[in-house]
């Protein structure tokens, strides 16, 4: 075939899935890979674990857990500390996770705003997004205070008891928000958690009117959070900005003042994102 014929030949479209793929066919998953990833997620829940602890947490046999860990270790995804016989997440896992963070410029746009937010409120500033119908924390600027909130990047939280979660839900389309609440449930995490759908609808209306949400010890006793949504160019909530701290410092008397600061800085982040 000459050069001209080659250039005029139609290009085959690259595929992301086999032609026979059906999304509802769970049988097409690789069971050993599925188990291994479950073990990795169990390891990520804490700052290291022994083989025994991890196999119990992942509900897998110790031999299965060890084979998976050894494979991940060869790729640098996990590390093993001989002294304490502890397995930990490795540097390659961070590199892989960083690809997700680099898909958006929201981290670069919000980081200086988060630092100012921490300085002005004196509390830890957080950035979270909705992933899998939960809040995933992706960035944090910690307060220097001894007692403070801490959410490592990747931490997941139920949306109905989270300041960021409620700020996002309040600005989602109503049917989407209620579908999430019904599917995930509204479990009572503390005596302050909102577990009634009607009460949550009223909460969403209040959030939209004042421009910020409050987690008033709804997820953890003794901790409060104030959050506001960050919007994209189409007015859709793509992230939530918040401050979290102990209730004895983040008092109810301060919530209005802190809420307006968070709301205004979330507005800055929105404008920085072109929203």
UniProtKB/TrEMBL annotation:
Keywords: DNA-binding, Transcription, Transcription regulation. Residues 1-25 are annotated as: Disordered. Residues 1-10 have a biased composition (Basic and acidic residues). Pfam families: HTH_IclR, IclR_C. Signal peptide: none annotated. The keyword Magnesium does not apply. InterPro entries: GAF-like_dom_sf, HTH_MetabolicPath_Reg, TransRegBhcR, Tscrpt_reg_IclR_C, Tscrpt_reg_IclR_N, WH-like_DNA-bd_sf, WH_DNA-bd_sf. GO terms for molecular function: DNA binding; DNA-binding transcription factor activity. Residues 92-275 form the IclR-ED domain. Residues 30-91 form the HTH iclR-type domain. It comes from the Bacteria. Residues 11-20 have a biased composition (Basic residues). One of its GO terms (biological process) is negative regulation of DNA-templated transcription. This is IclR family transcriptional regulator. It comes from Marimonas arenosa. The lineage of its organism: Bacteria, Pseudomonadati, Pseudomonadota, Alphaproteobacteria, Rhodobacterales.
């Amino acid at each position: 075939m000459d050069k001209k014929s080659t250039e005029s030949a139609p290009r085959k479209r690259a595929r992301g899935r086999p032609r026979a793929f059906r999304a509802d066919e769970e049988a097409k998953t690789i069971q050993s890979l599925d188990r291994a990833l479950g073990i990795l997620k169990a390891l990520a829940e804490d700052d290291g674990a022994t083989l025994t602890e991890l196999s119990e947490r992942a509900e897998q046999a110790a031999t299965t857990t060890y084979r998976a860990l050894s494979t991940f270790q060869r790729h640098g995804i996990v590390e093993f500390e001989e002294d304490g016989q502890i397995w930990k997440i490795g540097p390659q896992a961070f590199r892989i996770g960083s690809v997700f963070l680099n898909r958006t410029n929201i981290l670069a746009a919000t980081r200086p705003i988060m630092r100012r937010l921490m300085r002005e409120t004196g509390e830890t500033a957080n950035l979270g997004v909705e992933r899998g119908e939960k809040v995933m924390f992706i960035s944090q600027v910690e307060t220097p205070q001894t007692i403070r909130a801490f959410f490592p990047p990747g931490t997941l939280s139920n949306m109905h008891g989270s300041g960021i979660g409620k700020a996002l839900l309040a600005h989602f389309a109503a049917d989407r928000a209620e579908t999430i609440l019904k599917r995930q449930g509204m479990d009572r995490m503390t005596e302050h958690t909102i577990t009634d759908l009607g009460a949550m609808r009223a909460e969403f209306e209040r959030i939209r009117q004042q421009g910020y949400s409050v987690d008033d010890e709804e997820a953890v006793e003794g901790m409060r959070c104030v959050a506001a949504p960050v919007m994209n160019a189409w007015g859709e909530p793509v992230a939530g900005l918040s401050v979290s701290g102990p209730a004895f410092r983040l008092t109810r008397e301060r919530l209005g003042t802190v809420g307006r600061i968070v709301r205004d800085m979330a507005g800055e982040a929105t404008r920085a994102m072109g929203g």
